[in-house]
């Protein structure tokens, strides 16, 4: 699973607190702004024994006013380019030091409520040992994109098998959030099958995450590939 110990101990009242996360996404460091939400607007599965905790996490942490989620889930190759620009070798130790430097910046929690990291760095013992760090579990939930049979060369996300045990394990590690990304391709559709599979997969992931105590962040990504215009993108976005 998409991507960053958390609320297990105390609510977010220290400005230095923020969320660190796990992800497989190949993106660079950037900030995703979150819009404040109110508890009454949230729909939680009635069967979830974590309902109150999930609402508290979503409202007080993820969507806390004035803060965003730091996306820093760059690949090792991209991270290597950054290290090379300052004369450092692209090693695991240097990548870990770079990410640790970012997530331990003084006062970061004043502006950042979470950070999306790669799976391996986010489980680094040195980072996990810092109790003021919180855990945004991101994108390691979905395993990979694979061809969708009987479609227009479209894809769907694997990862639902075994998701219950994985989310339960991540919760025990301190995670309180999860994000699942699936993609919709415009040049080849999207076919009704692809849209249905995307919606079904995201819904199942969200339900399983809530049952395990994790706030589900749902990301149906409409790919920008091809030469279609903004009107076509809007049409597909409405359909999805």
TrEMBL record:
Q: Which GO terms describe its molecular function?
A: fructose-bisphosphate aldolase activity
Tell me where the signal peptide lies. Answer: none
Specify the pathway: Carbohydrate degradation; glycolysis; D-glyceraldehyde 3-phosphate and glycerone phosphate from D-glucose: step 4/4
Gene3D superfamilies assigned to the protein according to its UniProt record, in alphabetical order: Aldolase class I
Q: Name one GO biological process term.
A: glycolytic process
Which reaction(s) does its UniProt entry say it catalyses? beta-D-fructose 1,6-bisphosphate = D-glyceraldehyde 3-phosphate + dihydroxyacetone phosphate
Pfam families given in the database record: Glycolytic
**What class does this enzyme belong to in the EC scheme?**
lyase
**Keywords, A to Z?**
Glycolysis, Lyase
Matches recorded under SUPFAM superfamilies = Aldolase
This enzyme's EC code(s): 4.1.2.13
Which residues does UniProt call coiled coil?
none
The UniProt family comment states: Belongs to the class I fructose-bisphosphate aldolase family.
Could you identify this protein by its name?
fructose-bisphosphate aldolase
Organism annotation: Solanum verrucosum
């Amino acid at each position: 699973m998409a991507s960053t110990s958390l609320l297990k101990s105390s609510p977010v009242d220290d400005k230095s607190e923020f969320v660190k996360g796990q992800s497989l996404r190949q993106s660079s460091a950037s900030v995703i702004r979150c819009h404040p939400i109110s508890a009454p607007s949230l729909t939680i599965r009635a069967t979830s024994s974590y309902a109150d905790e999930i609402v508290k996490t979503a409202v007080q942490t993820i969507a806390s006013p004035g803060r965003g989620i730091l996306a820093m889930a760059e690949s090792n190759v991209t991270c290597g380019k950054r290290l090379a620009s300052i004369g450092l070798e692209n090693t695991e130790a240097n990548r870990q030091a770079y990410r640790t430097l970012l997530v331990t910046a003084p006062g970061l929690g004043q502006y950042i409520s979470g950070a999306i990291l790669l799976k391996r760095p986010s489980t680094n013992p040195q980072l996990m040992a810092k109790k003021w760090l919180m855990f945004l579990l991101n994108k390691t939930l979905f395993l990979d994109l694979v061809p969708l049979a009987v479609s227009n060369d479209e894809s769907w996300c694997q990862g639902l098998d075994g998701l219950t045990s994985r989310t339960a394990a991540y919760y025990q590690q301190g995670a309180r959030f999860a994000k699942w990304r699936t993609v919709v391709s415009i040049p080849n559709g999207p076919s009704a099958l692809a849209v249905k599979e995307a919606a079904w997969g995201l819904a199942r992931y969200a339900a399983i995450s809530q049952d395990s105590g994790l706030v589900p962040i749902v990301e149906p990504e409409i790919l920008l590939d091809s030469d279609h215009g903004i009107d076509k993108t809007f049409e597909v976005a409405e359909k999805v």
